């Protein structure tokens, strides 16, 4: 029996949460091959590929409008740093890939921001990286959204009034200014 002091330390694994949305997801089966709400462990030296070709891609989208390989994600560690990141590469010759406000053409790649929205065609994916320390593995955790991700993200950005206070207790908020005569 191994003593408490000699037991291996459990490493926290970097996890990429990806929330998918497509406007026709209720009528069609484009996400039928994805395992939602289950963490999948991926070896650090593997490239995670998303597309419709099940012989090449581990994450399959069952849609003829999706390229054989739509995009890939490569896990890496930054030079002279302990920080782990993902690099996203557009593998589609026909469809541009949008990562936040950056458009990627075929074979273009960039570092995936810690939180971003990936779009191609009618697909919307919210990607969020949860930091970890493992050098051997990373995890991908897929989710399905019932509402458009772009709409959800925009609605969460509520405007803050000039006073800096956003509260229903201030009844003057939202009303137009009224002119009052000095003599009243």
Automatic annotation (TrEMBL):
Q: Where do the record's region annotations for Disordered lie?
A: 165-184
Q: Does the keyword Cytoplasm apply?
A: yes
GO cellular component, alphabetical, reads: cytoplasm
Q: Which organism is it from?
A: Caloenas nicobarica
Q: Which GO terms describe its biological process?
A: innate immune response; positive regulation of canonical NF-kappaB signal transduction
Its main localization is: cytoplasm
Where found, per UniProt? Cytoplasm
Family of this protein: Belongs to the TIFA family.
Its taxonomic placement starts with:
Eukaryota, Metazoa, Chordata, Craniata, Vertebrata
- Is Cytoplasm among this UniProt entry's keywords? yes
Origin superkingdom? Eukaryota
Q: Where is the composition biased (Polar residues)?
A: 165-176
TM annotation in the entry: none
This chain's protein is named: TRAF-interacting protein with FHA domain-containing protein A
| Keywords for this protein | Cytoplasm, Immunity, Innate immunity
Q: Which residues form the FHA domain?
A: 49-121
